[in-house]
Amino acid sequence: MEWQFFTEVLVGGLLSGVMYSLVAIGFVLIYKTSGVLNFAQGALLLFAALTFVSLTERGLPGWAAILLTLAAMTVIGAAIERAVLRPLVNQPPITLFMATLGVSYVIEGAAQLLWGTQVHGLDLGIDDLPLEFGGVLVSSFDLFAAAVAGAMVAALTLFFRYTRIGLGFRAVADDQLAALAVGLSLDRIWTAVWTAAGVVALVAGLVWGARLGVQFSLSLVVLKALPVLVLGGFDSIAGAIVGGLIVGAVEKLAEVYIGPFVGGGIEGWIAYVAALGFLLIRPSGLFGAKLVERV
Amino acid sequence: MSRPNTRTLSLRAALLGALLGTAALLPAAAQADEQYFPLQSYRVGPYAAGGTGFFGGFIDYLTLVNTRDGGVNGVKLTWDECETQYEVERGVECYKRQKNRPGVAAWNPLSVGIAYAMIDDVGRDKVPLITVNHGRTDSTDGRVFKYVFPLLLNPYSESSGIVNYIGTREGGLEKLKGKKIVVLYHGSPYGKETIPIYQLLAEKYGFSVEQVEVPHPGNEQQSQWLSIRRTKPDYVVLRGWGVMNPVALKTAQKVGFPADRIIGNVWSNSEEDVIPAGDAAKGYTAITTQASGADYPVLQEIAKTVYGAGKGNLDDKKRIGSVYHNLGIVNGILNVEAVRIAQDKFGKRTLTGDEVRWGFEHLRLDPARVEALGAKGLFHSINVSVANHEGEGRVTFQQWDGAKWKVVSDWIAPDWALLRPIIEKSSLAYAAEHGIQVRDPAAEDASN
Questions:
Q1: CB contact A110 to B (< 8 Å)
Q2: What domains are there in chain B, each with its CATH number?
Q3: Where would I find the Leucine-binding protein domain in this sequence (chain B) (predicted)?
């Protein structure tokens, strides 16, 4: 049945989009509080997954490997903030972006130096078998990933609304000077936000690592997050989710229904076409804060 | 006349001594025959897993020949590595740097991009370029590509070998009529190279073929596999690379397509392609020119002589006998035997690149010679000539059982007669475009 096939493609696309959102949320966290587009998010994701899988392969139980990886991500996040970004404070955004680009290469190199170059399998204990709903097949692993993304968004929402440091994040995101004026420590908050991005990288790394295998190309999943950010806005978690869903659906539907007429293989760039089109209409994205400058 | 003081004498003596020492060393260095293999390796970056295995196997075999035999007829084999990270510009930089060392035997970059970038240079420098199992297909025609050797298998032969294997599984090539095959290919020049060949084979054997592109790097294939499920093919040929391979296997499982109906090409056949896919890879079958496993005499010698002495190149001994490691070893055998054959003609000394090229053009290892080299079952044979730089390599197929590869076919010959006219058409067009004088194999054989 054609409608069943269409539904499968659409649902599959939406669930793939959730996977993109997982990566995009890491970008949003950093951008929201410090205005830095952190290109190293993909490398952080690779490092987290590689550290976790290497520790478990050395016999550590899963919970211990998670804790140690979290500790490592905390140290790395804090180190990046302190050693690279803090000295560059007040520099133009392009300088900060280039700094994170450099950091991503350092992390990728360090990950291979530390844990080797081998490709690893990662089994989270979730079978990737198709489930049937009214004749429509849906991946059980994709449903699991969607649940993880939902749980992460819920946790981040609670964190931002009800914890002291979370409220600090929001204050800094709204107005850094005002936050300073009321006595918030920007350094502390930035360190905390980089740590949080490291945690998000671990979650995304485990989910993507289970799907692709833990290997160097994990760092390339950032390329999937960029159109999501353009669509959803760089500073909105809700935007990252909605943007992910749109990108996922557009990619899959376009590949299946337009691809055959233009030679196929279009899903790699069609998301960027959608994002560029959107950029022309709404430069700050669906949920991004509009930039208002006094002239 | 003033007498030189003691200090001046000492200085002169020291200088004289240094000069004499240098003079004594110079002939010694010139006399020490060495054959040098410059290795444009990649041990970091996205393709490091394949690079460490292949170059590890190559170096392990060279080390074995040096340790066990003292080199090839007394000529010591040397090598050094230049890191390319699989990037073309770095590969070319390495070429410029490494080519200045004397005694270069052959180049083995294991990279299509780097190999393409070197083709003109190796012709000028007269040193063979080896692209085992890969490279440009028309370089099989040695009449045009004098210094390029896609040994054992070119992409067209690979496609034909895969179709022949599917034919044997179906009970004969005539049973392919009416079957449906999907080729899932990497969205790159490499992936697209065999599109016309599958079309040709489909017309010859009467099966229908649908060729589906996966955009680079291939970490999302949901839509392609949903389309494949709708097509309901009898087989899917996976012409992948890197992360595309495990994702293909996992996505196939996700849409309910059986792994034992997926046949992988030569760059989808390693442990690195299946381990990340976990159980989804069980039953998956892939083509290879060299069987995996460490039970072959040459592998056992390497384990004993090289790794036993702490000279092994792999960090992880568990990788001995893996697909890339064994490919490196077979590549080592082919390079060393080419040097040996060339020495028989030109003398047991350091050879020039052009002399080693002659060795490759006379590289004929029949099954008996392969057995004598301790590689029976590891690879079948090779028969290179001036006109045929691929060398009629046979292929076999291995199935992944969840832990290791297991050979599930005999050695299969591709349909070279069908492919040769297409190869020649392309190579002759290249010759015309580049003003290359096409060689006459009969005349060259007569002069040798």
A1: no
A2: 32-153+292-383+417-447 (3.40.50.2300), 156-288 (3.40.50.2300)
A3: 43-402
Residue-level pLDDT at B6:
39
CA distance A227 to A133: 30
- The pLDDT, as a whole number, for residue B20 is 43
| Residues B266 and B247 sit within 8 Å (Cβ to Cβ) | no
Q: Least CA distance to A17: which residue of chain B?
A: B220
- Find, in chain A, the residue whose alpha carbon is nearest to that of B271: A119
A141 and B CB contact within 8 Å: yes
Give pLDDT, residue A294. Answer: 65
- At B205 the three-state DSSP class reads helix
Q: Is the pLDDT of residue B423 over 90?
A: yes
Question: Are B316 and A255 a contacting pair at CB < 8 A?
Answer: no
Interface residue A120 vs chain B (CB under 8 A): yes
Angle, CA of B395, B401 and B405, to the nearest 5° = 35
- In angstroms, the Cα distances linking B284 to A242, B109, B203 are 37, 28, 26
pLDDT of residue A134: 84
Q: What's the mean per-residue pLDDT of chain B?
A: 92
Alpha-carbon dihedral angle through residues A56, A60, A62, A67, given to the nearest 10 degrees: -110
pLDDT of A35-91, one tens digit each? 889 999 999 999 999 999 999 999 999 999 999 999 999 999 889 989 998 888 878
Instruction: Please report the residues numbered 2 through 31 in chain A whose beta carbons come closer than 8 angstroms to any beta carbon of chain B.
Output: 5, 8-9, 12-13, 16
Which of A206 and A188 is assigned the larger pLDDT?
A: A206
Question: Is the distance from CB of B137 to CB of B197 less than 8 angstroms?
Answer: no
Could you give the ipTM of this predicted complex? 0.86
Contact B316, B271 (CB under 8 A): no
